[in-house]
Amino acid sequence: QKEVEQNSGPLSVPEGAIASLNCTYSDRGSQSFFWYRQYSGKSPELIMFIYSNGDKEDGRFTAQLNKASQYVSLLIRDSQPSDSATYLCAGDSSYKLIFGSGTRLLVRP
Amino acid sequence: EAQVTQNPRYLITVTGKKLTVTCSQNMNHEYMSWYRQDPGLGLRQIYYSMNVEVTDKGDVPEGYKVSRKEKRNFPLILESPSPNQTSLYFCASSAARGPSGYTFGSGTRLTVV
């Protein structure tokens, strides 16, 4: 069974700090990886995607991909209380996205 | 506004009573998919469709049916709902042939008693 694994958290950080969210995946055939943010009771919202090894930056967010280690991460700089949500990591596999169960992030004011 | 529209948002039904959850997108996307989300299990794919009249099973298709007669619509049908189908359901679509960045619908919270 192909899997994407995340620590469920909660990950608690103070406002203004860097939040680091991680996931690992088992399908070496996966090429594309996605980070979604999901507020309680709401639908997932795409934050970033990454296809190539290395870093990809978009505003306060940086996605990192290491295909050799099968590892994906999301860094959130200058964390805000509004960033408090569950973050879902997903990888593509055979015409679908496989999602991790998500990491809950709490940003303390 | 580009969006995926699901209806209803909330539904309580009884075991065995057939129901349909509708999904419609206005982005001319080819790829559409249904997921269910359960605590601790994450999002699991039920069915997907690569284009009109092309559908295939995902990871948890038992007890569900879908159809894709028009590009914009992808309804999810529960012929005989059971309590283990109580869940939060999401429809999603994307432009590419495979699942690139999904756009999700707002979700349907289904309770089967």
Q: What percentage of the residues of chain A does DSSP assign to strands (E)?
A: over 45%
Q: How many strands, which pairing sense, and closed or not: the largest β-sheet of chain B?
A: 7 strands, mixed
Question: How far apart, in Å, are the first and last alpha carbons of chain B?
Answer: 36 Å
Unreliable residue stretches of chain B: none
Number of helix segments of chain B?
0
Helix and strand content put the structural class of chain A at: mainly beta
Q: How much helix is in the residues of chain A?
A: under 10%
Q: Report the helical percentage of chain B.
A: under 10%
What percentage of amino acids of chain B are in beta strands?
over 45%
Unreliable stretches of chain A (pLDDT < 50, length at least 5) are none
Largest sheet of chain A: 6 strands, mixed
List the secondary-structure elements of chain A in sequence, H or E.
EEEEEEEEEEE
Radius of gyration of chain B, Cα only, in angstroms?
13 Å
Query: Could you state the order of secondary-structure elements of chain B as H and E?
Result: EEEEEEEEEEE
Interface with most residues: A-B, 20 and 24 residues
The overall pLDDT of chain B, averaged over residues, is 93
Cα radius of gyration of chain A in angstroms: 13 Å
